[in-house]
Design brief:
Blueprint: E1 3-9, H1 16-24, E2 31-37, H2 44-53, E3 60-64, H3 71-81, E4 86-89, E5 95-96, H4 100-111, E6 115-124, E7 127-131, H5 139-148, E8 158-161, H6 162-168, H7 180-191, E9 195-206, H8 219-236, H9 243-260, H10 266-270, H11 285-295, H12 299-319
Parallel strand pairs: 1-2, 1-4, 2-3, 6-9
Antiparallel strand pairs: 4-8, 5-9, 6-7, 6-8
């Protein structure tokens, strides 16, 4: 069984060598590596080429976009070029645990699942935390976990049968780079025949790359996130078994964005679909306090609360060693 590992490359010159090495040193034999250069403006590609020269026996290619088209387009380019039976996605600033591909492939051999999930580490400098979300072998139930926020929808945490992309018609949507995994993975799971999971942290999510999409919340990114929620709502609103999860997920996403947005973007975020009454089942205590302010459009109180929360969060992150003191 052949695996295709797809790595979008853009602005990751500090991280790409470690990322590539983690894949090149995997022991699973039948693997192709596809790096997609999304017109990276830094030295990411020269660094990558130097790393690839150390492993001449590995099957690896670098595809190139003439212009920067975004993360979703880079993933799509990689998927379309892949010849493996399964797709493994890896961001250029993250890396895989040794032996990860062997464990994922072994789970497929055992279950023949369309999607195999995995656990992960979140990493800050010399600190890390282990993440294990909810999961189910039933695709519909797992879709609900992803929609509601009980499990992370990251495509990088799921090895996906390539045929699932083609028969479902679900592909990364070019232009939707913020939330591109949230809009893709739950819909793919809806069409999956079965889901499996490896209960080990095989993926390392790096939290110190402040230039990554995950750390950005500009007006442009918020506009994309509004489209993501609209797309999910249109897909799942006629599927009654998913409505509770959809309601919880929409409110979680809307509240999370509101708490990180600047005040001038509140009205834009408010256009995001969110079913009333407020569903707080997937929220933490801080989000539950903010949600009623959002529902009743108490923007001044929300701004004061959100700013206080961000200051407190920064202090906690510093105390936990996840941020460097200025």
């Amino acid at each position: 069984m052949k695996l295709s590992v797809i790595v979008p490359v853009y602005g990751v010159e500090k991280y790409i060598a470690r990322c590539a090495k983690s894949v090149l040193e995997q022991t699973y034999a039948d693997t192709e590596l596809i790096f997609v250069d999304d017109a990276s403006p830094d030295s990411s590609i020269p660094v990558l080429r130097e790393e690839l020269r150390r492993y001449p026996h590995q099957q690896a290619v670098i595809l190139r976009h003439a212009t920067n088209r975004g993360l979703a387009a880079a993933r799509k380019t990689g998927i379309e070029a892949a010849t493996g039976e399964y797709i493994v996605s890896l961001d250029g600033d993250d890396y895989l645990e040794p032996g990860a591909l062997d464990l994922l492939a072994a789970e497929v051999q055992k279950t023949n699942a369309d999607i195999v999930g995995m656990d992960c580490y979140f990493e800050w400098n010399d600190k890390r935390s282990y993440y294990h979300g909810s999961w189910s072998s039933d695709p519909k139930e797992y879709s609900r976990f992803l929609l509601s926020g009980k499990s992370l929808p990251g495509v990088c945490l799921h090895m996906i049968r390539k045929d699932l992309y083609t028969r479902s018609g679900i592909m990364p949507i070019e232009g939707l780079n913020s939330g591109e995994d949230y809009v893709t993975t739950p819909r793919l799971c809806w069409y999956a025949r079965s889901i499996a999971h490896v209960d080990k942290p095989l993926y390392h999510y790096i939290q110190t790359n402040t230039s990554s999409i995950a750390h950005s919340l500009s007006h442009h990114h918020i506009t994309q996130l509004v489209r993501v929620v609209e797309t999910l709502t249109a897909f799942f609103e006629d599927k009654p078994e998913c409505m509770d999860a959809l309601r919880a997920g929409q409110w979680l996403k809307k509240t999370d964005i509101m708490m990180r947005a600047v005040k001038t973007d509140y009205k834009l975020v408010d256009t995001m679909p969110a079913f009333l009454p407020v569903n707080t089942t997937s929220m933490n205590v801080f989000q539950r306090m903010a949600a009623p302010l959002i529902a009743h459009r108490q923007w001044v109180l929300l701004w004061l609360y959100s700013r206080s929360y961000q200051v407190a969060l920064e202090i906690v992150q510093i105390l936990k060693g996840r941020r460097k003191k200025c």
